[in-house]
Amino acid sequence: MAEHEHVPHVRVAVIGSGFGGLGAAVRLRREGVTDFVVLERASGVGGTWRDNSYPGCACDVPSHLYSFSFAPNPDWPRTFSGQEHIRAYLEHVTDVFGLRPHLRFDSEVKLMTWDDEKLHWAIETSSGPLTADVVVSATGPLSDPKLPAVPGLDGFPGRIFHSARWDQDLDLRGKRVAVIGTGASAIQIIPEIQPVVGRLTVFQRTPPWVMPRVDRDISGLERRLHRALPFTTQLRRGFLWGIRELQVQAFTKHPDELGLIERMARRNIARAVKDPALRAKLTPDYRIGCKRILLSNSYYPALTRPNVEVVASGLSEVRGSTLIAADGTETEADVIVFGTGFHVTDLPIAERVVGAGGRTLARAWSGGMRALRGATAAGFPNWMTIIGPNTGLGNSSMILMIESQLNYMADFLRQLDVLGGRVALDARPAAVDAWNHKVQERMKRTVWNTGGCTSWYLDASGRNTTIWPGTTTEFRSATRRVDLEEYEVVRAPRTSRQGERPAGTRTEARA
């Protein structure tokens, strides 16, 4: 680009338009900040609820809890709503809060580089460059599908796709389909496609614990009541939240208390699966809760059908149309569907964030993701993330955590205003270390660390860098305000007499 060309500048650049990005946009407007853009690589809002359109896609958190507190929806059609209803809700939020003028679709972020002299972020996108004082990364951990490196996969003659990139043009009727994985997406897909496919082979490395899904239509009377008396919607949400808050101690402090839930889950298997050999394949050998507890009324029954085979092993090799499991089982397939999760602990966006001194976020997190209060990273001034390290939940709604992080974002911007001038806040390494030490110490006794399983919650070194080891109330309290003592203040430098500009000056922040 020629030097004279104008590069647009904004106060805040939000990356992503899922729940985190749209929530950030609403909060910015409510804080009186209108000089911002939401950069979205796709052509519509919705994030994971736009990308995941596979058969049976739905949320495993009740609808009235899986929605913004500031945008209650009295018209949820079911207690657990499907993908199409959640995406429609996000479109509604976009319109009601006037976010469309801020959206920049088809604008994938290629690189974000911190300028130590100008104290702003230079952002390269597929639709052109811009700069921003503050970056709020809301790309989410469930946005980049993970495909395993299976020998021979590139020689498979049929169709291959990930559950989050469902091939809508493909007719599965009569085909031999292999589903790789038995996670949250797979257990929704399998019952939907089983009646139409010719043969369905499920490759299961580790069986999940599956509980009944207490789902039903929300009656017209209930919806009319919620519309007429909005406080009833809040009461319903509060009840759903309270139940889950009471459950947290069993996951975080007393995993042995989950024994009753585990016995219920075993009975759920026994009721649906009468074949002892299949039941043995489907029964986990780890404490319930170690992996996310899945909800379905149709998964186990689908696996008992004559056209379904469960291979209790992962896919290890592909030879033409023959799929070979790690235990040597061979099966023929026309289609392979990967339900193998996402890049959660090795976020691809981290390669594209270049902080102070030219260090990438990926390099900074090479030993494991870590962020102060799940939001800011040392060496990356005026950069924060929504749904950052150790902010995930194992039993409740992520919207609660997102809204807590939005509180932190809002106060972060207020502190910049109070400090005045061209200024940035950079998390102190000692503060990041102290926060993460406290989180990891609490993590030691949780079911996610003691339950005897390997899950996507853990990074390559076995450290849990995804889950919050406490209640949502505790996290809300921890992120209510920015503690300036946890940050260094980076101020714009003065130009020397020779016209040279030294690096920005750093001082310790004071409350």
Automatic annotation (TrEMBL):
The record's keywords, sorted A to Z, are: FAD, Flavoprotein, Oxidoreductase
Checking SUPFAM superfamilies in the record gives: FAD/NAD(P)-binding domain
Top-level taxon: Bacteria
One family name in Pfam for this protein: FMO-like
Identify the InterPro entries for this entry.
FAD-bind_Monooxygenase_sf (IPR051209), FAD/NAD-bd_sf (IPR036188), Flavin_mOase-like (IPR020946)
| Family per record | Belongs to the FAD-binding monooxygenase family.
PANTHER family recorded:
FAD_NAD(P)-BINDING DOMAIN-CONTAINING PROTEIN-RELATED, L-ORNITHINE N(5)-MONOOXYGENASE-RELATED
What's this protein's name? NAD(P)/FAD-dependent oxidoreductase
